[in-house]
Amino acid sequence: CGEQNMVNFAPNIFVMQYLEAAEKTTADIATKAIEFMKSGYQRELRYRHKDGSFSAFGPSDESGSTWLTAFVLKSFAQAQQFIPIDTGDIDMSREWLKRDQMENGCFLSKGKVFHKSMKGGIAGNESPVPLTAYILTALLEAGELIVSRPISEAAFCPVSDKSEDPYTLALKAYALALAEAPEAAQFVVQLRGKATVSTEDMYWEMPPVNGKSAAAGVETAAYALLAMATLSPVDYLNDMQKLVKWISSKRNGQGGFVSTQDTVVALQALAQFEMVLGQKPVDVAVLASSTSLDHSFRITETNRLLLQRVDLPSFPTTVTADLAGEGCALVQAVLRYNIPEEDPSTAFSLTATTQTVRDDKCITKRIRACASYTLPDLKSNMAVIEINLVSGYIPDKNDLKQVVGYGTGLIKRYEVDG
After folding, report:
1. pLDDT, tens digit, for every residue of 290-317?
2. Where's the Alpha-macroglobulin-like TED domain (predicted)?
3. Which domains occur in the chain, in start order?
4. C-alpha–C-alpha distance, residues 370 and 410, integer Å
5. Distance separating alpha carbons of residues 158 and 165, to the nearest angstrom
6. N or C: which end of the chain has fewer CB within 10 A?
7. What is the pLDDT of residues 60-101, one digit of tens each?
8. For residue 129, what are the contacts with CB-CB under 8 A and spacing of at least 6?
C-alpha cells in the first residue's frame, strides 16, 4: 500500500544526503539508492488521488490522508536532488494540504493511517498541534515561502499551544526553526529543561506510544537535533553531539531503530548533523576483549563505511572495547537469542461459517468471515484475512468486488493467488 511503500522510499533519501555530506558516496551505493527511489516514486503515484493527496489504497479510499500526504510531500521534495520528480505533483499535494487550514492556523486531519508506527509520536494525539507542526515542516521542506500566509498562520498554531510534553515541544521547535520564528529558541530552552543530561548524552524519558517508549524517545531526540541544527549548530554543538551519541546507541542490529517513523526522522537528523558540521578524518583502533576473545579493528578514511564484525565464541561473557586514535566510530554489541513462541494473540475476534447454496446448474459454497479488533486502543494496523479454498473450488470474483464496493470502507482490496 501507499504507506508501506513510503517506509522503503524515504530512508534512501537520507542515506544519500549523509553520504554526500561525508563525501563518501560510492557508485554501487548510489546506483542502488537511486533505483530504489525511482521505483518507489512510480509505485507511490498509484496511491495518488486526482486532487493531489495520497492515501493507503489510493483512489479507492474515500479521501486522501492528511498525514500521509504531508509525509509524501516532504519526501518527494527532498528526493528531487537525486531523481526526477514532477514538480506538478509536489505543487498539487502542497495546495491540497493548505485547503484544510483552519482560521486559527491549525490543520484539519483527513483520512486514515493504517500503519500506526508510521505516525510515530503523533499517533493517538488528538490535539491538532503536532499534525500542524508536521505539515509546517513538510510545506517548508517542499519550498513554500516563509513569508507566505499559510506558513505565518500555521506557525501561530504551535506558538499559541501550551502543551509541554517533550515530543510536541521538539516537533514544534523544529517546525518553527524552519519557519524562522523567534519562539523556536524558547521551545528548545523548555525542551532542554525536561531532558536527562549527562556528560555523555542527552535524552527524554517518554511514555509508551503504541507500547514503544523507546521509539518516541528516539523521535523526540531526532526532532530536537534537527531544531538545534537549523537554529544554530555552533551554539548547540555540545548538545547536538550528546544527542547524536544517544540516538546512535538506540540503533538496532539491522541499522534501523525501534520502529518506522523514528527511523526515518533519526536518519534525517543524523544526515543533517553531518551536513551542517561535517566529520573530522577518522583513524581509530579498537580492541574488543572478552574471556575468550581478543580482536583488533582499524577504522580509517578508506573503510569507515564498511561494517566490521566479529562473533563472540562463548557466553556468558563480558566484553570491553578499548579505543585509541582520532575521529568518531560506533561500537555496537548485538545479542540475538530464541524465545518460546508467544501465546496466540487475542487482539482479534474471528469467526468463519460456510453455507451450501444449490441451484439448477451447480452447488456453491458461501463463506462468511467476520473479524473485529478487541484491544483498548480501538485501532489496529492493517489487517489481512486469508482464506484457503479446498481443492476444486475457485473464488467468485464478482462477489469479491461487491464486498469491496459495499460502502462501509472496511474492506479496501482483495487479492487472489493462483
Report:
1. 888 899 999 998 888 888 999 988 888 8
2. 1-272
3. 2-277 (1.50.10.20), 283-326 (2.20.210), 348-404 (no CATH)
4. 11
5. 13
6. C
7. 788 899 999 999 999 999 999 999 999 998 999 999 999 989
8. 106, 157, 158, 161, 163, 168, 172
Number of residues in the chain: 418
pLDDT of residue 24: 78
Helix (H, G, I), strand (E, B) or coil at 402: helix
Containing H/E element for 296?
strand 293-300
Q: In which residue are the cell numbers 490543520 written?
A: 107
Q: Which whole-number Å values give the CA distances from 12 to 118, 134, 216, 333, in the listed order?
A: 16, 20, 22, 25
Label residue 211 left, alpha or beta by phi (over 0 means left) and psi (-120 to 50 means alpha): left
User: Could you tell me if 314 and 292 are in contact, meaning their C-beta atoms sit under 8 angstroms apart?
Assistant: yes
Q: Determine the Cα–Cα distance for residues 380 and 382; give it in Å rounded to an integer.
A: 6
In this structure, what is the dihedral angle of CA atoms 224, 225, 230, 233, given to the nearest 10 degrees?
Answer: 130
Sign, CA dihedral 288-290-293-294, equals: positive
